[in-house]
Amino acid sequence: MSGDNDLLASAISGALRSFASDQGWERTTHSAHDDRLGDLFGLKELRELLANVRVPTGMFRVLRDSVPLPHKPFTVPVLSDGRHVFDALDPVVALQAVSGGSSLLLASLHEYWPRVRTLCATLSEQTALSCEAFAVVSGADSPGFAPHFDPNDQLVVQCAGTKHWKVFAQAGEVPTTGDPVELGDKGPPMFERDLTVGDVLYLPRGCPHFAQSGHSTSVHVTIIMRRLTHSMVLADAWDAALERRRLADQSLPPFWTDDASSAAAAVQDLCRELLSALPDLIRTRLGMDAAPLR
Length: 294
Description:
By secondary structure, this protein is an alpha+beta fold.
């Protein structure tokens, strides 16, 4: 099993490395194919998960015609000594809903499915990005989610059936939350085709998209990749600099406005001291030597 996970991680990281070699890769879609990726989480694994894992309310969502449905009809109570502990996904009702054309989202799949957990951990180590995953199971000819964009980069791995994707170019500032979007003024999609088993699609953050399953049940796993931005590295280094210099906690005295120039000079002196420490702290944050940047 460990060897299988290594092969899957190698296939995905290899595809991502090839995508990242293209200039402007983070603003456009890329796709690749590897037969091994179909083994990640197909229908067999789905049935095994539903038979052996209690998926709690809040970790799944059922949609019909792109509309999220109430959780309650799709749950069964989990009891301990006859007492209600929590509500969990009812696998029978959930699979019936999927057979009827609904979609089932399994959130945070990496938390309770070992193969996906190991894969995300391996990818996080290889890419130096924080990776997590969810799965979407869609009945035949299901539209899944309404057109929307997401705040993080994603890799979509098709594991069963087919799904027709339309992805549009980023428009304006990248969002911080995923929201529905109107496509009337987006122009033609920059990516449109069916994903088949073994396909992997790189979906940049902020790109409006939607997908519809083919004529059979579709399963895909989405790997979320949280970018490490320059501002995040700077913020981490700045926080580390502040922690190392207790003078930063020194308060301005009462009536400091009587001599605001002296107060400003004291803060500016501290700022210069903190800035001088940033190069080493940036290198430490990025796992490099603490030698000064050149």
